[in-house]
């Protein structure tokens, strides 16, 4: 054993503290995210259909930059969370064969790749480096603490290559010969071990020693446990070696061929087998995942835990990932009484009562069990808490029942006064009246037993009742198939919903202080108690679907909306702002099967179909079990590391190695940069922003786009920065992914420019000298004539130039000059992401001014309007005379600010006195405006602004009108 020596006691103590505490902290975080059972993991599967080059995954590794790599018989696949990229045999990779067997991540973001025909390559960053080949297939690679190379070779043994001072490797030294070596490992004492077809060997620089045992013959796999023990996968189970003794990890698999054995960050032992699938040993509980439960193939070849604590398993038939998804589904397989869940109810701080088409269940700490002591089959539709304990149960065929502590008793059926035995909603109000919703109206049962039946004839909006709720004022809200209303002062008051996208179905209520939120077939509706006003948050406000069933609010201020197409998360305060008209659109996040839901089809034809426990967990009734999420779990997933990497760089159409080529050749018109955030749990949701320092110092929001393109960059130095985040999360620290220089063209080089300037100066000086001499030989009269003619020509040229770009009457830019400037600014705005506002201003009824006064007065009026505009426009606004009485204004602004700005100009003209032009002359203007957002051509911007002006004229003139895409 080699003991490292340190020159400083303090250095030694710090090393020990970090060595002890770092695994503890890592284990603690991983434990919080470790599912209770193997079946709680969400399973993703990839095969050749999804982009893998081959279904046998021989090895898995993750490099320091965050990429995941998979070794197959058809090359190495690199995964970025969204797509695979293949690297196979060729001059770039220096692989001798596409069949790869070994992947080992090394320092400096390097990856060792070993495989068939003794192929060995090293990838460092963007560059592949060839290595001396081995005599046979490389099964594994080990780089020891000194940087020396150890290779486990099929049918040959183990070879060691010493690292030289120049970074190359010396001659091969055989440590083991004439034996198949499968795996190499270095323990905490820097001792090297080999797993072979003849057992376990301890290796040194020049010799080997077999660890004698009769318990097994072959060692296929080696890894290290948290305490430094060796973990062995053998032909007879999994074993632990502490340096002195071998001990069986679990006797239940002692006759199983174990191909993989690893310990995860939470301390669980994972076992891959040759024909029984994958096993996990956790707190002495042994669970199996095999082909019958979603494993692509029962032969496990590889295993890896990534930096997000997801488990990747390679098999003979494909790749799976076991991950913590935002949602967890509690289904019949886990003990729920039936999968088709219609209603869920919180009966105390940590217990959920669940009604399905097959009966009642209780869920406590995510563990379901039957809620009834007797085996009674019930089709449950609705639930409600009873004030004296237990819960009211609405059924499909058995009317109203009451559950308490495992027993259930009938309360009301059609024989006792219910219009039908189908009970879809129940409410016990604050006065202990019991409200029972059915497809044939609602029944109110008072504490003294008196019953009233309400239908459309009694003022109910519809007989088909699906939802009931009570607000803070004691109103009883009733949701039906054709509208919604509330009971107040012994009568029903129905809401007018026709103006709200003609909403009809009211599936559920969420009562908030001062408000009632209603889930409908046209979005969600907010009813404000103070002024009895209703407002919609639906498709017109940005929600992508119409129909929502339930609304739950979490502890962080977000609404969770259930639907037939998954669950939607929106900010509650933003929803209020949209309802109040302060915001025009709602931002949402969507969850479905890819986020852990067994089914994205939530149910909502009866109530309650969602619930929240005091822990903050939200539960939703679906067509396949109960979907649950704890928002804190989503926060944890969003806080996972999010490495940012540069994927590729193109100069025009040519891909380049950005590490080897930081210079953009002169004449390159386009630089294209691809990047990605290596987050694997919610890859599709990652949002990006970029900045190119040297070009623009502001961030450009890219949303989910993973590429940026820059055209016609000026010569100079540039830095490309990227920042990323998950939705509602914080932006990561900006990272410089690519730093480069754009070379100047020949005529743009400094020395060439200096030479040209000097040459021009010499030429000009020579010309001046010659001219002076010539003038001296000329008569004075001729000099004066030439000077006069020169002056006249220059004046003429200046006048013509001015007339071609300037309006003679007002001195403003004319239409030709404005068109040119508009095209230029439009192109720049597209590149920078800025929004241009174009306004066309027309003097109202200008012909009347000419007719009533004179054309001369009309000209004076135009000049006076221009003076008013000049006094009020901002310095960066481009003002031009478009023709006649029409003017154009071009500036950068957002929609709200620009409309206020133009309204200010319109008001200023309206308020201005034109008495100096003509007595009692009043002038107003109409303004049409449009923005460049979503437009690809400046001519479209002009057309929209012109249409907006026509709209302003049609609507009565003296106003500002906008038309946008």
Automatic annotation (TrEMBL):
One of its GO terms (cellular component) is plasma membrane. It is an enzyme of class 2 (transferase). Its cofactor is Mg(2+). Pfam families: GGDEF (PF00990), Reg_prop (PF07494), Y_Y_Y (PF07495). InterPro entries: Diguanylate_Cyclase (IPR050469), GGDEF_dom (IPR000160), Ig-like_fold (IPR013783), Nucleotide_cyclase (IPR029787), Reg_prop (IPR011110), Rev_trsase/Diguanyl_cyclase (IPR043128), WD40/YVTN_repeat-like_dom_sf (IPR015943), Y_Y_Y (IPR011123). GO terms for molecular function: diguanylate cyclase activity. Keywords: Membrane, Transmembrane, Transmembrane helix. Residues 834-965 form the GGDEF domain. Coiled coil: none annotated. The chain crosses the membrane at residues 752-772. GO terms for biological process: cell adhesion involved in single-species biofilm formation; negative regulation of bacterial-type flagellum-dependent cell motility. Its EC number is 2.7.7.65. It catalyses: 2 GTP = 3',3'-c-di-GMP + 2 diphosphate. NCBIfam families: GGDEF. This is diguanylate cyclase.
């Amino acid at each position: 054993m080699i003991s490292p020596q340190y020159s400083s006691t303090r250095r030694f103590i710090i090393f020990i503290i970090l060595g002890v505490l770092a695994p503890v902290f890592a284990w603690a975080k991983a434990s919080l995210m470790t599912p209770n059972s193997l079946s709680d993991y969400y399973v993703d599967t990839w095969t050749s259909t999804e982009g893998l080059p081959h279904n046998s995954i021989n090895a898995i590794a993750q490099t320091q930059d965050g990429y995941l790599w998979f070794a197959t018989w058809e090359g190495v696949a690199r995964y970025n969370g969204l797509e695979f990229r293949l690297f196979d045999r060729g001059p770039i990779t220096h692989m001798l064969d596409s069949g790869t067997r070994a992947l080992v991540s090394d320092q400096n973001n390097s990856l060792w790749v070993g495989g068939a025909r003794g192929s060995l390559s090293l990838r460092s960053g963007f560059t592949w480096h060839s290595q001396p080949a081995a005599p046979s297939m490389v099964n594994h690679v080990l780089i020891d603490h000194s940087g020396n190379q150890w290779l486990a070779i099929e049918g040959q043994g183990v070879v060691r290559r010493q690292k030289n001072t120049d970074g190359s490797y010396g001659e091969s030294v055989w440590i083991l010969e004439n034996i198949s070596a499968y795996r190499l490992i270095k323990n905490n004492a820097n001792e090297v071990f080999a797993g072979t077809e003849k057992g376990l060997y301890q290796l040194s620089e020049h010799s080997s020693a077999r660890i004698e045992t009769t318990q097994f013959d072959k060692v296929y796999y080696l890894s290290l446990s948290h305490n430094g023990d060796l973990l062995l996968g053998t032909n007879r189970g999994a074993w632990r070696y502490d340096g002195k003794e071998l001990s069986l990890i679990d006797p239940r698999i002692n006759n199983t061929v174990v191909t993989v054995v690893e310990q995860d960050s939470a301390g669980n032992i994972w076992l891959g087998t040759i024909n029984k699938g994958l096993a996990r040993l956790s707190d002495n509980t042994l669970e199996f995942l095999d082909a019958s439960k979603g494993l692509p193939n029962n032969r496990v070849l590889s295993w890896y835990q990534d930096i997000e604590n997801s488990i990747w398993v390679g098999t003979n038939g494909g790749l799976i990932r076991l991950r913590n998804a935002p949602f967890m589904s509690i289904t019949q397989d886990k003990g729920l009484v039936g999968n088709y869940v219609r209603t869920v109810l919180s009966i105390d701080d940590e217990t959920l009562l669940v009604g399905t088409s097959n009966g009642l269940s209780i869920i406590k700490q995510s563990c379901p069990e039957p809620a009834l002591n007797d085996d009674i089959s019930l089709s449950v539709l609705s639930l409600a808490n009873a004030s004296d304990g237990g819960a009211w149960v609405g059924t499909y065929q058995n009317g109203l029942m009451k559950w308490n502590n495992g027993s259930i008793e009938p309360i009301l059926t059609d024989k006792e006064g219910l219009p039908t035995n189908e009970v879809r909603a129940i409410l016990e109000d604050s006065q202990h009246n019991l409200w029972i919703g059915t497809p044939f109206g609602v029944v109110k049962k008072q504490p003294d037993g008196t019953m009233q039946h309400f239908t459309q004839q009694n003022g109910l909006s519809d007989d088909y009742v699906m939802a009931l709720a009570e607000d803070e004022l004691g109103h009883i809200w009733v949701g039906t198939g054709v509208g919604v209303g509330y009971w107040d002062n012994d009568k029903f008051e129905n809401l007018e919903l026709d103006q709200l996208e003609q909403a009809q179905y009211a599936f559920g209520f969420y009562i908030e202080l001062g408000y009632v939120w209603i889930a409908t077939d046209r979005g969600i509706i907010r009813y404000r108690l103070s002024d009895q006003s209703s407002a919609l948050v639906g498709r017109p406000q940005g929600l992508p679907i119409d129909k929502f069933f339930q609304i739950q609010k979490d502890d962080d201020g977000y609404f969770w909306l259930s639907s037939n197409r998954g669950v939607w998360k929106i900010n509650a305060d933003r929803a209020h702002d949209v309802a109040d008209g302060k915001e025009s659109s709602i931002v949402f996040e969507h969850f479905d099967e890819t986020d852990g839901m067994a089914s994205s089809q939530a149910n909502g034809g009866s109530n309650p179909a969602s619930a929240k426990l005091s822990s903050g967990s939200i539960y939703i009734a679906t067509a396949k079990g109960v979907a649950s999420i704890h928002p804190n779990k989503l926060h944890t997933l969003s806080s996972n590391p999010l490495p940012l990497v540069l994927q590729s760089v193109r100069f025009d159409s040519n891909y380049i190695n950005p590490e080897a080529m930081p210079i953009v050749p002169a004449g390159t018109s386009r630089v294209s940069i691809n990047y990605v955030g290596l987050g694997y749990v919610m890859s599709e949701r990652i949002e990006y922003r970029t900045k190119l320092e040297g070009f623009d110092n502001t961030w450009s929001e890219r949303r989910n786009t993973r590429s940026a393109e820059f055209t016609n960059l000026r010569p100079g130095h540039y830095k490309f920065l990227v920042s990323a985040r998950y939705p509602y999360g914080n932006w990561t620290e900006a990272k410089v992914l690519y730093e480069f220089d754009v070379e100047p063209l020949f005529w743009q080089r400094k020395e060439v420019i200096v030479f040209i300037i000097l040459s021009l100066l010499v030429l000009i000086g020579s010309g001046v000298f010659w001219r002076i001499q010539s003038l001296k030989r000329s008569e004075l009269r001729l000099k004066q004539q030439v000077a006069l003619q020169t002056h006249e020509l220059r004046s003429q040229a200046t006048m013509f130039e001015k007339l071609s770009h300037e309006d003679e009457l007002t001195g403003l830019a004319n239409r030709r000059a404005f068109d040119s400037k508009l095209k230029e600014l439009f192109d720049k705005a597209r590149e920078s992401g800025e929004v241009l506002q174009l306004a066309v201003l027309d003097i109202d009824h200008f012909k009347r001014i000419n007719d009533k006064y004179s054309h001369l007065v009309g000209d004076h009026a135009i000049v006076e309007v221009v003076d008013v505009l000049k006094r009020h426009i901002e310095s960066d606004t481009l003002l031009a005379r478009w023709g006649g009485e029409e003017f154009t204004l071009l500036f950068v602004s957002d929609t709200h600010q620009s409309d206020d700005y133009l309204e200010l100009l319109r008001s200023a003209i309206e308020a201005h006195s034109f008495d100096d032009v003509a007595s009692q002359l009043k002038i107003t203007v109409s303004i049409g405006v449009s923005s460049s957002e979503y437009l690809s051509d400046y001519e479209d911007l002009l057309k929209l602004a012109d249409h907006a002006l026509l709209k302003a004229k049609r609507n009565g003139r003296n106003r500002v009108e906008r038309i946008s895409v």
